[in-house]
């Protein structure tokens, strides 16, 4: 597991009352933060802090001259966009629909913001994820396509995408 230390601490506190014994049996934990890079086989994965109320990281995955950036939970602010520049695939959360800034919680993106950011960073393809089940997926795709200006896909269970 590659995640901020605080993620491990919270999981450990919740699942093992702070002992961490159960988690250590299940996971080989490696704390990561902005600027960290790990090699996993032929993949190079770099991490960057995201715009969220609790510490979270996005990740840029690179291999064979192909790149994917996964936002994880994030709002639109922060320096994370530089890590997403010129990727082949931007896997972006899209927890909201409608106008940016209309939500009470500013640390998630609208589908339209995801599309706009994908266009601004030069992503070749946009795949939306983190769409709550009570939202109309077709509307999220439409809003993202309006700002991305090309077809947008959705991450669903079992979906596969070539990077």
Descriptive report:
Helix content is 28%, strand content 25%. It folds into two domains: 1-31, no CATH class; 35-154, Ribonuclease Z/Hydroxyacylglutathione hydrolase-like (Metallo-beta-lactamase, Chain A). The strands form two sheets. Strands 3-4-5-6-7-8-9 form a seven-stranded mixed β-sheet, covered by helices on one side. Strands 1-2 form a two-stranded parallel ribbon. The chain contains five helices and nine strands. Helix 4 runs parallel beside helix 5. It starts with a strand and ends in a 9-residue tail after the last strand. It has helices at residues 5-16, 21-26, 81-84, 111-121, 137-148, and strands at residues 2-3, 30-31, 37-40, 43-49, 57-63, 66-70, 89-93, 125-129, 152-154. With 163 residues, it is of the alpha/beta class. It is globular, with a radius of gyration of 16 Å.
